[in-house]
Design brief:
This protein is α+β, with helices and mostly antiparallel strands. The chain has 3 helices and 3 strands, in the order ααββαβ. The chain is elongated.
């Protein structure tokens, strides 16, 4: 009998094994890279959501510890320390100048009725490191920050006004 086509012999099994050994590391690097990219997106969205929740707290309760705690509570998966969460109040005319919301006397407007109309700015920083050393050496560390700016709606600072509403 005459067969048509190439003959499969003993060498084809070894060739397949060599091809698999060459492709496997590249395939695994791509899969882990997709995994790390998903973690970056997750960290970005989590930091933004935590800043948004902290901002919601800041517009009704200007107690810095409360704002930081609320933001950190929503960034628990990232392990953000509440002390690293930045909270300040800015004049709407100078929104890029930190702590620019001042009274007519030049004192901070927090705790006074002059806080109305100021922007509560909450920033949640996070440093992302890749899960795998190879991807980490390619990308390095990525600085992620969620930031929001909301106008203040209620004047309340504890312990001066211990009945501050919870921004839920």
């Amino acid at each position: 009998m005459n067969r048509v086509g190439p003959r499969l012999g003993r060498g084809s099994r070894g060739q397949t094994l060599v091809e698999f050994a060459l492709i496997l590391p590249i395939f695994l690097l791509i899969v882990v890279g997709i995994f790390d990219a998903g973690r970056v997106v997750y960290a970005h969205h989590t930091a933004n959501n935590a800043a948004r929740e902290g901002g919601r707290q800041a517009i009704v309760d200007q107690t810095e510890a409360h704002v930081q705690a609320r933001a950190a509570q929503h960034a628990v998966a990232l392990g953000v320390d509440p002390a690293n969460i930045e909270v300040d109040y800015r004049n709407p005319d100078t929104p890029d100048t930190a702590d620019s919301c001042l009274t007519k006397d030049g004192d901070p407007a927090v705790g006074t009725n002059e806080i109305y109309g100021c922007l509560a700015v909450v920033r949640v920083p996070y440093t992302y490191d890749a899960a795998t050393p190879i991807i980490g050496s390619l990308m390095g560390t990525i600085q992620i920050a969620g930031e929001v700016r909301f106008p203040v709606e209620f004047n309340c600072v504890e312990p001066d006004k211990p009945q501050c509403p919870v921004g839920q």
